[in-house]
Design brief:
Chain A: Belongs to the MsrP family. The complex is a heterodimer of chains A (about 300) and B (about 240). With about 300 residues, chain A is of the alpha+beta class. Chain A is built from nine helices and 13 strands. In chain B, about 70% of the residues lie in helices and about 0% in strands. Classes of the chains: A alpha+beta (about 300), B mainly alpha (about 240).
Chain lengths: ~300, ~240
């Protein structure tokens, strides 16, 4: 695949200053919130947020959404359908021990222990825009590694045309799974060229620390040019497959949520316009950008496709 | 807002505390005279207190919402939360309004009906604020987008229809209008509520992404309230 720009380098210089400023704010904020954070981690039995070592990667220069908002306003139906439910209920989820099975059309299928997986990767921070299909957006400083590196590790064969993802199924901790609001476990999928695109990220951290449970701990997908629901959380299985895999929201309402679900202001959701969005923390709506502003890097993946048909 | 059943008509419509204050017991209903009066009918003071309580109960969610909005307690997306809460409270009050007639008859408390207008008007106020916050805050008065939404999004089409139908009911809610229109015509007009509330429930149902339980709960309550009326019509024939 032709990559006209090397995302890893393009915007580093722009980001530096913003990062520097933000980090100071973050440290100041952490000092104030430290006690509360420790208290929560101690009582809930969930893994405490731990700092991660990482370098700076491809990032938007936009101001990141406050951590409080990113961690309190989530769509994670495994923990309830209200936006505030995951922050309330996700503490129950035990993220250790945790394994991720990577299998299917590959020569070296493997089950990774989460800590070994993270240790074996060079982590980087990537500040991405996230656009929810519901018409709101955030700017999120993820820490993670490219999905393509994980896929390469299992040596995919030529039959690997798509990648299927699966979230943990554990109703005792993911209490939302006790009711079939969606078909559990949550499933998502990408075409292999989407999955191996340098922008497709496996995130294991947020704001420099391990991922909070409500944001998809211990590891989640982040595909910044697609609507947020494509970025599946708390992954336990990744399979290389030869045909387009079923996906949770598409099965729930195929007319509303396509397999591709690229951010596209020209294709409305039946129940709301996708032309604009509200950035969390802002008052006025802003225009939604094609591919969430990442068209420069990903539009080529869809050359020749009718995106009104393949929404 | 709907047509009161025959047996209740004499006590309806009546203004509450907000209508012109009439004579009240000078003693505040504490004396033996007042107490004797309350055997048949509660005293004026007690009436006013009960009325004030109803009024406050209707206004409380709004005050609470305003408080939460100003203290930043509406979450990461306060605009969405505000619009949603205003809509939900509008729908709740519409259902409470529809529940009054059955409650009055089943509990044999015909004077409950005097709260119907207040509750209906509060419902209208919530629905109006709901709509205005969508147009003014969410869309920021983008009329083009509003028109597109009304034409293209079924849930907005239905919601808007419900609002438009509510307007004549709110306007004609005064005693003056009952007299001007004549009771029969007024009642026929206010039958619209039986269209409006189902539209409101459908509006909510179509908005929800996956978990349809909350709108279905409202739908079930509505079905009971309407079902009771149908049942009564046939049962008393």
């Amino acid at each position: 695949m032709l990559i006209r720009h090397r995302p890893d380098l393009t915007e580093n210089d722009v980001t530096d200053r913003g990062l520097y400023l933000r980090r100071r704010e973050f440290i100041a904020g952490a000092a104030g919130l430290g006690l509360a954070g420790l208290g929560l981690a101690g009582s809930g039995g969930a893994a405490a947020a731990a700092p991660l070592a990482f370098t700076k990667g491809f990032s938007t220069p936009e101001k990141p959404t406050p951590k409080d908002d990113i961690t309190s306003y989530n769509n994670f139906y495994e923990f309830g359908v209200d936006k505030s439910d995951p922050a309330e209920n996700a503490g129950r989820l035990k993220t250790r021990p945790w394994t991720v099975r990577v299998d299917g059309a590959c020569e070296a299928p493997r089950t990774f222990d989460i800590d070994e997986l993270i240790k074996g990767q060079k982590l980087e921070e990537r500040i991405y825009r996230l656009r929810c299909v519901e018409g709101w957006s955030m700017v999120i400083p993820w820490v993670g590694f490219p999905l393509k590196d994980l896929i390469a590790a299992v040596k995919p064969t030529s039959k690997a045309k798509f990648v299927a993802f699966e979230t943990l199924m554990r109703p005792s901790e993911m209490t939302g799974q006790k009711w079939d609001v969606l078909q559990w476990p949550y499933r998502e999928g990408l075409r292999i060229d989407e999955a191996t695109h340098p922008l497709a990220l496996i995130a294991v951290g947020l704001y420099g620390e391990t991922l909070p449970n409500q944001n998809g701990a211990p590891l989640r997908l982040v595909v910044p040019w697609k609507y947020g629901f494509k970025s599946i959380k708390s992954i336990t299985r990744i399979s290389l497959v030869d045909r387009q895999p079923p996906t949770a929201w598409n099965r729930s309402a195929p007319r509303e949520y396509g397999f591709y679900s690229n951010v596209n202001p020209a294709v409305d959701h039946p129940r709301w316009s996708q032309a604009s969005e509200r950035r969390i923390g802002e008052f006025r709506r802003r225009e939604t950008l094609a591919f969430n502003g990442y068209g420069e890097w990903v539009a080529d993946l869809y050359r020749g496709m009718d995106l009104k048909k393949f929404y | 807002m709907a047509q009161p059943p025959q047996s209740l008509r004499d006590s309806s419509p009546r203004g509450g505390a907000s209508s012109a204050p009439t004579k009240s017991f000078p003693s505040g209903g504490g004396g033996p005279e007042g107490r004797r009066g309350s055997a048949r009918r509660p005293s004026k003071t007690r009436d006013n207190l009960v009325y004030a309580a109803v009024w406050l109960a209707c206004a409380a969610p709004l005050v609470w919402l305003a408080f939460r909005a100003f203290t930043g307690d509406l979450g990461a997306n306060p605009i969405e939360a505000l619009i949603r809460q205003l809509g939900v409270w509008g729908l709740r009050l519409l259902l409470v309004g529809l529940a009054i007639t059955p409650a009055a008859m089943i509990l044999k408390k015909p004077r409950l009906v005097r709260f119907r207008r207040t509750i209906g008007l509060f419902a209208f106020a919530y629905v109006t604020l709901h709509l205005f916050s969508y147009i003014g805050v969410d869309l920021y008065f983008d009329v083009g987008q509003l028109v597109k939404d009304i034409l293209k999004r079924p849930f907005i089409t239905l919601g808007m229809a419900a609002f438009v139908l509510l307007i004549p009911l709110a306007v004609t809610s005064t005693n003056g209008w009952v007299i001007r229109m004549g009771r029969a015509a007024w009642s026929r007009l206010h039958w619209l509520i039986y269209v409006i509330v189902p539209l409101g429930v459908a509006h909510y149902y179509l908005l929800v992404k996956a978990d349809h339980r909350p709108p279905l709960v409202y739908g079930a309550i509505l079905a009971v309230l309407l079902g009771w009326r149908v049942w009564r019509r046939f049962a008393t024939r």
